[in-house]
Specification:
Helix content: under 10%
Structural class: mainly beta
Mean pLDDT: 90
Distance between the termini: 20 Å
Largest sheet: 8 strands, mixed
CATH topology: Neuraminidase
Low-confidence stretches: 1-28
Number of helices: 2
Strand order of the largest sheet: 5-6-7-8-12-11-10-9
Length: about 300
């Protein structure tokens, strides 16, 4: 484990120009870098009722249960084999729904597909996955490309938010990603989530729901040259959502990790700390899979 002090741009950050790499940073924010036994290509995190983390790998058919301990901070991991994922599909996102049930986001390796599957943890420790819902270009309002499907999920019970990695262009030239609401496995709304850079894509979501249905959300927008934590609220009936940049990590990714850190999962622990995971499977990223535990702000 390593402890680092990093310069990040918080909610009040101000862009100095149109280059997404350049921001005015506020004082250092500490985080712990934690070794964890996860397969390559770990792409997302979810949080269950006990405070356990769940991580899913893109192509290894396994979902990993992570117990995070403190004093000293460490991890204990249980790997759960996954059954039922179709060939040619990457599992990119995971949400804990309660009662041992999960939602899984997928995309096509060679085809432009995006889908949500559902799974349940069995008494034998295996997780059986069943296809459920696929999305189309006409439905989403964007032209999907291969490897850019359902990259992020969050929710609870019957309610889910689904983030699509493919993006569209707004009338003012800005960019947006589809943000889909599901209830009981059916689409109820699709909003346009405005992106904050000229190249970043939505790669992770974590949310909680208020009694009126409003979702309070944090997410990750990332690409080469972009690594940002977004914060926003999604009220029922919202058509377009403009997030705030809650944290800009690009200077950390560039300087400490030589542009090779790809963050693709985020949750908020009960004590307010953020936990993120990196996906180390790609042409321009490398290094071991780790958890990044940010201290409470």
């Amino acid at each position: 484990m390593k402890r680092a002090l990093v310069l990040v741009a918080m909610l009040a950050c101000k862009r100095t120009d149109d280059d997404p790499k350049k921001t005015t940073a506020l004082p250092p924010t500490p985080f712990d870098e934690v070794d964890v036994d996860l397969p390559p290509g770990s792409s997302d995190l979810a949080l269950d009722d006990r405070g356990h983390l769940w991580s899913i790998a893109e192509r290894d058919r396994v979902i990993s249960e992570i117990e995070l301990t403190d004093n000293p901070i460490a991890t204990r991991v249980t790997h759960h084999p996954v059954d039922g994922v179709p060939d040619g599909v990457d599992t990119e996102a995971i949400a804990w729904l309660g009662g041992g049930k999960f939602a899984i986001g997928t995309e096509g390796q060679q085809e432009a597909t995006a889908a949500v599957m559902f799974g349940e943890l069995g008494t034998d420790g295996r997780i059986a996955i069943h296809p459920a819902l696929s999305f189309t270009n006409d439905q989403l309002g964007v032209v999907m490309t291969k490897n850019h499907g359902v990259e992020s999920l969050c929710g609870r019970g019957d309610d889910l938010l689904v983030g699509i990695e493919s993006w569209g262009t707004l009338p003012d030239g800005g960019r947006w990603s589809p943000l889909i609401r599901l209830h009981g496995g059916a689409v109820t709304e699709i909003a346009k989530l405005r992106l904050t850079s000229d190249r970043g894509k939505l790669s992770a979501l974590y949310c909680t729901f208020a009694p009126d249905g409003t979702a309070d959300v944090i997410g990750i927008e990332r690409h080469y040259g972009v690594s940002r934590i977004l914060a926003f609220s999604d009220a029922l009936g919202a058509k377009e959502i403009t997030p705030k940049i809650a944290m800009d990590l690009w200077t950390v990714v560039r300087d400490r990790y030589h542009e090779k850190l790809n963050l693709e999962g985020i949750v908020t622990l009960a004590d307010g700390r953020w936990v993120m995971v990196n996906d180390n499977q790609g042409a321009q990223v490398d290094g071991p899979t780790k958890l990044f535990v940010f201290h409470s702000r």
